[in-house]
Amino acid sequence: MKNSILISLLLLFAQLSLGQNTWTAEKVMEYRNITDTHISPDGKFVAYVVNEALMDEETSEYNSQIWVAATDGSMDVQYTRGDKSSSSPQFSPDGQQIAFLSSRADGKSQVFVMRLMGGEARQVSHVESGVSSFKWSPDGQKIAFIMSDPETEEEKKQKKGKSDVILVDQNYKYNHLYTLTFPEDPREETVTRQLTSGEFHVNGFDWSPDGSRIVFSFANNPTINENLLASDISIIPSDSGQVTPIVKRPGVDQNPVFSPDGNWIAFESTGGQPERVGLSDIYKVSANGGELIELQKSPDRNASIQAWSPDGNAILISESYKTSRVLLAIPSNKDQDLPEGDYMAYSESKLPIITAIEGASGAFSVSASGNSISFTYEDLNTPEEVFVAGLHGENATKVTRINADFNAPELGKTEIITWKSKDGLEIEGLLTYPVDYEEGKKYPIILQIHGGPAGVFSQTYTGAPSIYMTQFFAQEGFIVLRPNPRGSTGYGKQFRYANVMDWGFGDYEDLITGVDHVLDMGIADENNQFVMGWSYGGYMTSWIVSQTDRFNAASMGAGLPNLISMVSTTDIPDYIVVHAGDKEYWEDYEEYEKHSAIYYMQNVVTPTQVIHGANDLRVPLAQGQEFYNSLKRKGVDTEMIMYPRTPHGPREPKFLMDVSPRILTWFEKYME
C-alpha cells in the first residue's frame, strides 16, 4: 500500500513539473454546473444559475449565482454576486424585472427583485421561515410563494431554554401558500397574506391565467414517505377564500398547471392508487372540477410537466429515455394509443420530440410568448451549457460559455454498449475507456452501480463532479462500466418494475453479464475486477461480495445490506416494502432475509471499503456500521470512512472531492 501511494505521489509531482493537464479530483472540482434556466416572456433573454465549489483552508461550500444571456448572443453577464447564493430566477410578466431567492439579508431564503438592465436588488419578502418557491402573478402585481409554518412563541422559548424535546411524527411544520402584493409606491413595503392553513402540506401550485385563482397540490404531512404515497389538488381564490377540492382520490396527484385559456388543469398522477416503485402519467381536469381525463402515456411513464404549449394543444413534459433526457409533447386530447416504452413509435408519430436523444437536456423553460424554450444541454464529451430553440426544438443555439475556460484534459472515450442478461433481457450501459487506451492491452475494470434502483446512467459530461469521478478513474488506467440494470428509469414501466421482489437476483445477473461482456471484448483484465456503488448501488455492492469472490476489492457507499433493519429506520419505508412484495417484514421475514447481504455474511471474502454520511436518514448510518463491523469481526479486510454533517451523499465540495481518491487507494491496494 505504501509503495502504491508513493508511486501515485511521484506521478503527480512529475505531471505538475511537466505542466501536464490531467484528470485529478481537484481538476474535476473546477467544473461549473448550471442548475436552472428561465427564459424571458419575449424570448430575448435567459436567466440561469451557475453553481461552483468554493474551497480554501476554512471553506468548503457551493455558491450559486445568477447570470443573464441574450438569446441573440450579444450578452452573457453575471447578475448577482456575494458570499450568499442566489437562485430560482424568474422574469416578471413584462420582462423588465427578475425575481430570485437569496439568504443574503437575514440568513433566510427571501424573494429579491432587480431590474433586467441592472441596479440594486430589492428585498420584497420578509417572512420568518423563508421562501421555498414562488411564482409571479400574470399581471406582475403579486408573487405567490410557499413557506413552512414558523415556530410558535412557545417553541422559541423552549429552544432558548434547551427544553425543545422532539416529538416524532407530531407537531409538523407544514408548507402553506402566501401572496405578497406590490404597493403602488415602490418605497413602501409589500403586503403579505396567508392563503392556506391547516394540517396539510403544499407541494406545488400555479396561477390561473387571469390571476384570480391559484391551484395547488398537497400531501397529508411533510414527510418524504407520505409525499410518495398520496397527494391531492385543490383551488383557492388568489385574494384568499374557500378552498375547493379539484382532485381527491388515492395515490399521488401533483404539479397542477393551468392551460393557457384557464379552462383546464394538467397534472402528474399515479392513476388513482399509490405507485411506490415510481409512476407519473399526465391527466387533465376542468378548472371547475369534474371528470379526470387520462392523456397519452409517455414512453417511460415517468413524466414531469414543464408547460402547456401556447395553443393549448399539447403539454410539454421531460423524462428519461434510456441514457438520454428529453423534452417531448403529449397531446392535450388523447387521440392515439402508442405502445408503452416504445420511444421510436413516438418519434415516428405526430408527437414532437423537442430535444436531442444524443446527450442530456434539462432545466427547461418555455417563454410566455410560446415562441422559444431554454434548456441546458451536455453530452458525454461536451460540458453543460445553456441553449435556446424554437418551440419544436428548431434552430437550437448555445448562448453561454460558462465552461469555456474549464480546459478539460484529454477524455477517456465513452460509448454505449448493450448485452443480453442471463434471462435474455437486453441491458444497456456506458463504457469508459482509460485516457491513454492502447488497443490490444487489457485494463483493470470497475463496475459502478447507480442508486435508486430507479436511477439511470445518462449521457452527461463524463468530466463533471460526482461521487464517483469517471474521468479520474479513466486517467488512472481503469475501464469504468456503468450499467442500467432492470429497475432503472428510462426504459418504461415494465423494466422499472422488473426487480420488485427480485433485488439481488435479476439485477445481479444484469450487472455480472455486463462485466463478462466487457471481458469478452478483450479489453478488460479478468485478474483485476473491482466494484463500487452508492445507495442502491451500495446495496448491490454488498450483495455482490456476498455472492461471488471474483472482484479483487469493493467499495460500498451508503449501502443497505440488511433490509429488515433498513425498512424500520429509513425515511422511505414504503419504498422498501413495495419492493419486498408489499408485505411488512414481520409478515414475511424470509423475503427480506432472502435479499439481504447480511444473511450471506459467511460467504464474504472480498476486501470491502465502507463509506457513509453521518447524518444519512435515507440509508441510516447503522447500515454501514452493520456491514463494517461484520467484515471486521469476520476478518475480511475493511475500512470505514464516515463524513460528518453529511446526509445521503456528500454536500460539501471537499468531501465530494475526497471520495474517489480514497476508493482509488483502496482498489490499488488489491491490484494484481
UniProtKB/TrEMBL annotation:
Q: InterPro entries, from UniProt?
A: 6-blade_b-propeller_TolB-like (IPR011042), AB_hydrolase_fold (IPR029058), Peptidase_S9_cat (IPR001375), WD40 (IPR011659)
Give start and end of each Peptidase S9 prolyl oligopeptidase catalytic domain: 469-671
Kindly indicate whether the keyword Signal belongs to this entry.
yes
UniProt keyword Protease present: yes
**Which domain of life does the UniProt lineage start with?**
Bacteria
What Pfam families has UniProt attached to this entry?
A: PD40, Peptidase_S9
What does the UniProt keyword field contain?
Hydrolase, Protease, Serine protease, Signal
Signal peptide span: 1-19
**Could you list the residue ranges that cross the membrane?**
none
Q: Which PANTHER family match?
A: DIPEPTIDYL PEPTIDASE FAMILY MEMBER 6, SERINE PEPTIDASE S9 FAMILY MEMBER
Designated name of the protein: Prolyl oligopeptidase family serine peptidase
